Structure formats: C-alpha cells, structure tokens
Amino acid sequence: MKALCLSGSPRKESNTESYLRVAVDTLEKRGIETELVTVVDKTVNPCKGCYECWNRESRECQQKGDDFHELFEKMVAADAILVGSPVHFSAVHPTIWNLLVRASFPGIRNHPHSGPRLFDRKIGGPITVARRAGQNFALAQLLLWFNLNNFIVPGSMYWNVGTARSIGDAARDDEGIEIVRQFAENVAWLLKKTTA
Fold this sequence. Notes:
Layout: E1 2-7, H1 15-29, E2 33-38, H2 52-55, H3 68-77, E3 80-88, E4 91-92, H4 94-108, E5 123-130, H5 135-148, E6 161-163, H6 174-195
Parallel strand pairs: 1-2, 1-3, 3-5, 5-6
Antiparallel strand pairs: 3-4
C-alpha cells in the first residue's frame, strides 16, 4: 500500500506542506508507505487539449520538457493520493491544477484495449489552506476532480480545510491539524479494508 501526498504550494516549507506532513505521519504510523512531493521546483505546463493521450494506446501525454511525466508516474503507482493546495483567489494553485488536469485526460479514458481507467477506485481527497476564506471553493474544485476520476473519498470530522497565512501558522491551527489527522486515519483504514 502506497500513498502519495502532493503539495501544490509554490513556497518551500509552506503551510500546505505542514498539513500534509500531519497526513504523512498519520499514514506512516498506520503502516502505509507514504511519499510527500511538492511542486515548488516543478514546472507543469497546462493541458493543450490535443487528445493525443486518448488516441494512443499508451495513454501517454505528448507534451515534453516539463515535470509532468515524473509526477504522473507516481500518481499511477499510488494506491491513495492526497492533494493539498493553498487557495489563490478562491481556487487551487495553477501548477497543481495543471498536473491534475493533464493526469485526468489519460486517466479517465477507457480504451477497449487498455483496461480500466487509471485512477478507478483509488482512495484520496483534498486539503485546502487559506488565510481567511475561499477554502471551500478550492475544496469543491478538488473534490470534483477526485469524483470525475472515480476515486473513493473518505471524510473527516469537518471539511479538510486549514487556516494559515504566514509560514508556520499551520502549526497553530489545532482544529485543522486534527481534521487532517482524522482524514488520514480514514484513508489508512480504507486502504487496509480495500486491499485486504
């Protein structure tokens, strides 16, 4: 069982990463192999809508020269994917959104010769972080992505949102930390139930 935690923040040691580290610690304590990947030093260009990934049995995105393929391979290999993003103008950060959109095109295609869709029944869910407001809009944006890609999304004791602005603020958000911890525990529980 392997979980991939993707941090969509453009900042190093960001609040988004801090919440995801809570998830990583929780998952690892439950025996889940977990990797945290940030997009801080990554470039992911937007999808060009060329549909070449649908027209080829390999489902391979034809764009080259950025970090998409490395990240996409990690997503396909994972049993669970958690996506954290800061909120920018009530939406997720563009780099992580570019990754998710590009992953969706080859991921949702159901070619008769290529078997099931790439993300079918993986487990996952979002975490969004903002200074004051906008988390729910970004959370809904990510939930729609998980739903479209046929993920199973466990809940928590509240929406997976954190309140933080300056670096280090997340560590003072006791409720947000507990929400993320409960969410990660539910991910671990579900992983064990579905892979037993």
